[in-house]
Amino acid sequence: MKTVTLPSGVKVPALGQGTWFMGEQRSRRADEIAALRHGIDLGMTLIDTAEMYGDGATEELVGEALQGRRDEVFLVSKVYPWNASRKGTKQACERSLKRLKTDRLDLYLLHWRGNVPFRDTIAAMEELVAEGKIRYWGVSNLDTDDMDELYEHLDGERCQINQVLYNLTRRGPEYDLMSWARERRMPVMAYSPIEQGRVPADGALADIAAKHGVSPYQVALSWVIRDDNVIAIPKAARAEHVAENRASLDIMLDDEDLALLDAEFPAPDYKMPLEML
Ligand code: NAP
Asked: Ligand 1 pocket, 90 CB below 6 A?
């Protein structure tokens, strides 16, 4: 498995697994758990979840999927912005740990920026690290100006990641956010890397897919992780999708492919506000 290095020096898989909308329907539960476990078997051992997903039901499902396998996984969860006060962050983390049936998170993210001052959330995150409840912390959905502000409160490279919406149809972060992160050796974690299954499966993606004998979604995923500083977390509740996603790591997009994709999905030439789902 290709890896990406966090500022702490820890290496994590370049391809992980998302979980949004899992655990919401009883009838799909067994398949979702099997899909996550299959992904772990294939080396996609970074699992991303959040207290928001399914109002806690997703974390419960992830906890079930990880029974007996917790140590194989780099587990990521997120705190709601309105819970991200000094006290609230710690309480939310305890609730997540309970639902996930574990004693620690590997990475805990502020889900998006709310009204709580950064210094309070950072203080709570650092206390959780000191207590061994989380190994590392990071943020999500923060644009470049927010990141500058966050860094004013930081002593060194404490923030491990910024998780943002990034895929072929959402290239905004390439304008300045991704270079900002690269300069600080902080990876970007790309969420909705295949635009929730809605990347246009015709045109250039279809042509390149036919050339490589893969699907357009695999090409779209391969494109996201072409960058060594990016981790992608596709969500797949079906085992066949999990296997296809893992196989996307083996696709070698060439210069011609990349030029075709650039023509159809141009890189931004002006700053646009960070999009979020
Ligand atoms: P996504 O991963 O881009 O797309 C998921 C959809 O694509 C599902 O419907 C899935 O179907 C389908 N799919 C997966 N692999 C496929 C394949 N190989 N071929 C065809 N279809 C495929 O969207 P996402 O779930 O929004 O994003 C991924 C994860 O990022 C989330 O689950 C969540 O963990 C995280 N996220 C974070 C934020 C944030 O604010 N920080 C926001 C959104 C998402 P099946 O499930 O039926 O297999």
From this structure: no
Q: Return the ∠ at Cα 140 (arms to 134 and 142), rounded to 5°.
A: 135
Ligand 1 atom with the smallest distance to the CA of 235 is 2
**Pairwise CA distance, residues 1 & 15, whole Å:** 8
Whether 151 is catalytic is no
Kindly report whether the global pTM for this prediction surpasses the value 0.85. Answer: yes
44 within ligand 1 shell (Cβ under 6 A)? no
- d(CA 236, ligand 1 centre) in Å: 6
- Which segments of 34-133 are extended strands (E)? 46-48, 74-79, 105-110
3-state SS record for 55-79? HHHHHHHHHHHCCCCHHHCEEEEEE
Question: How far apart, in whole angstroms, are the C-alpha atoms of residue 247 and residue 168?
Answer: 19
State mean pLDDT over 220-227: 97
Cβ distance 168 to 266 under 8 Å? no
Structural domains in the chain, sorted by start: 3-264 (3.20.20.100)
Residue 36: alpha-carbon gap to chain centroid: 15
What does the mean pLDDT of the chain come to? 97
Residue 155, pLDDT score: 73
Nearest CA-CA partner of 168 in 105, 218, 207: 218
Q: At which residue do the structure tokens 């004998």 appear?
A: 213
The whole-number average pLDDT for the span 170-199 is 97
Question: Rounded to the nearest 10 degrees, what angle do helices 203-212 and 255-264 cross at?
Answer: 160
The one-letter amino acid at 262? D
> From CA 257, how far away is CA 87, in angstroms rounded?
50
Site of tokens 């710690």: 90
Lookup result for tokens 């949004």: 20
In short, whether 20's Cβ falls inside 6 Å of ligand 1 is yes
The residues facing 167 across adjacent strands are: 170
